[in-house]
Amino acid sequence: MTATETHRAIDAIWKIESPRLIAGIARLVRDVGLAEELAQDALVAALENWPRAGVPDNPGAWLMATAKHRAIDRIRRERMAGRKVEALAYDVETLAESENDALIDSIDDDIGDDLLRLIFVACHPVLSLDAQLALTLRLLGGLTTEEIARAFLVPEPTIAQRIVRAKRTLADAGVPFEVPRGDELQARLASVLKVVYLIFNEGYTATAGGDWMRPTLCEDALRLGRVLVGLMPHEPEVHGLVALLEIQASRAGARLGPAGEPILLLDQDRARWDRLLIRRGLAALELAERLRDARGPYTLQAAIAACHARALVAEQTDWTRIASLYAELMALNPSPIVELNRAVAVSMAAGPDAGLAIVDTLLDEPSLKNYHLLPSVRGDFLFRLGRLDEARQEFERAGSLARNAREQALLAARAEACSRGAA
Predict the structure, then answer these.
(1) How far apart are CA 310 and CA 296, in angstroms?
(2) Residues 6 or more apart in contact with residue 198 via CB below 8 angstroms
(3) Does the domain made of 123-175 have the CATH classification 3.40.190.150?
(4) Residue 49, Cβ density class (10 Å: 0-12 exposed, 13-18 middle, ≥19 buried)
(5) Whole-angstrom distance, CA of residue 330 vs CA of residue 193
(6) What residues does the RNA polymerase sigma-70 region domain cover (predicted)?
(7) What distances in angstroms separate CA 43 from CA 78, 114, 208, 233, one per listed residue?
(8) Which end of the chain is more exposed for a tag (fewer CB within 10 A), N or C?
(9) Which regions of the chain are under pLDDT 50?
(10) Interval 121-157: pLDDT, tens
């Protein structure tokens, strides 16, 4: 294997192994920032050794052993300098004096639990949502600061500062490296699921920039969701979220045209939808519904996505059921955006005038004041009703509010179509 091939292999291995590595070390040192630093030390050691010695048979175990030895060396130096080493998971005396592999391997047994702890730490409510997103992608997605900055169109120094502050905040707050229990578990789980959901959504329809999709973010979110399913197999909303992501991801190949332009749901070639992802999503949805009679918000959204997935052509879509599911979601989790989506479903089931009546009740909603999809949806209803001049104005307003270049072009084209029709 050439040096270039070895470095490429190391990059791929790091992407897979870094969350496990950081999680295992964080249980040892009880400090996420220090754990990441020690994991990076192991990565540097791999970059120095593997091009010469070759990639080991079990690279993950090599990285873990190297990082743990570095942790022991760090503890020894701290002790020799007379510093206090706080909150270690294992007795410092034993760690500093023992070098045998049995000790090194002894803390590998609960790696699944360690990953779960790391997810809950990265999504701790002491952090802002932006910090949770950045830290989760860094620690669990294996993304570099540059990759995170590029994905969210934020300057790299901003992301770097956000991550540094997040790790410092966790340390200063003394956030325990553990999975919460009882009511706190459910409250914190909601944050974890929201972070994964938002990461996927940013990849599925990018907020800003020149690309409508960022597939790597979708892949990272789906991988995190699958990890959660393996770690929390009895939590129905975890399965519900994964069901939603699997089904949504199945459409990725049909959502972009040859030049990267958006192709809307009703115009997509459904033969290009990934049937394997759909089957996985439907199976996850069935499991979520079997685990709990009362569907949660992610399970309801997955049920809506399933209605589209089961329709081989757009005309077969059960819009009445979708409208009913949105009504159920609205009752469970009231939101102007949910109501806007319900309006779309109602318009498809009962006509654009019925959808317009719902949308018009949202015009004074403060949270939608600068939300480009409100005038976009209203423009679509007006277009279908033949009120082309009004529709053009709505599409132009939507375009002025949109931040994604592809979406702006789509809305401009729709406004132009209204002008041509009116002429």
Answers:
(1) 21
(2) 129, 133
(3) no
(4) middle
(5) 19
(6) 19-79
(7) 22, 20, 33, 31
(8) C
(9) 85-109, 423
(10) 999 999 999 999 999 989 988 888 988 888 787 899 9
